[in-house]
Design brief:
The structure is a homodimer of 131-residue chains. By secondary structure, chain A is of the alpha/beta class. Chain A is built from 4 helices and 4 strands. Chains A and B meet through strand 1, helix 1, strand 3, helix 3 and strand 4 of A and strand 1, helix 1, strand 3, helix 3 and strand 4 of B. Chains A, B: This is Cobalamin biosynthesis protein CbiX.
């Protein structure tokens, strides 16, 4: 069973996470080979180690971590590899992989460009102080 | 002339910004009514005030700020409105608007879900320690 973990930054405000929950829900309708779950770097639970433990308990032999960061800075280039190295030591039989950051996908950037342009164009029709 | 500012967090690593530069480049091929530029909350230049000043100098009478954040936490809900209020006072003749955060668009979340699923599926074909 192949589990997918969406790895996001985390924030103090619980509402911050809903887009990631919506993304996971979309993915679950297409990914039928295993669970799709969330994990956070900080400020929110579960952290990546707890999320990996949970998927292993559910029976995943393979887990892929997808960094949900538009820009790939220290969190993606340093914090995540350090976490992954520790987790590979703790779970030697697990196929544990991570992908590039979601913002490094050109398809994503084209979709973001289309959405940003639509939002900006729509904004011209609204009142000048909104939102 | 309607300028669009993509407002991103910023990071210490200059390479962090390239997805946002790629998004702006995609947008420029479609948005012909004015400039598309970047602005950062912290750690990178220009900040939002400097970026707004630059677009006003270029002749923009309207500027829309699109927050390039997947989750909308304190940066989008508190920091950005405070900046916008100050900028509206400084530029009383300017139509200055902001939109919802890019991650609050369902189209974006569907595109992110598709991309995350593709990355996770491709990862199973790679070596178990990569990347």
């Amino acid at each position: 069973m192949h589990g997918i973990l969406l790895f996001a930054h985390g924030a103090r405000d619980a509402a911050w996470a809903w887009p990631f929950e919506a993304i996971a829900a979309h993915m679950r309708t297409h990914h039928v080979d295993g669970p799709v779950a969330l994990a956070y770097l900080e400020l929110m639970q579960p952290g990546l180690p707890e999320a990996v433990d949970a998927l292993v308990r559910q029976g995943c032999q393979a887990i892929t971590v997808v960094p949900m960061f538009l820009g790939a800075g220290g969190h993606v280039r340093r914090d995540l590899p350090a976490l992954m190295e520790r987790l590979r030591t703790e779970h030697p039989g697990l196929q544990l992989r991570s992908t590039c950051a979601i913002g490094e996908s050109d398809a994503v950037n084209r979709a973001l460009a289309t959405a940003a342009l639509a939002l900006a164009t729509e904004s011209l029709a609204g009142p000048s102080t909104a939102p």
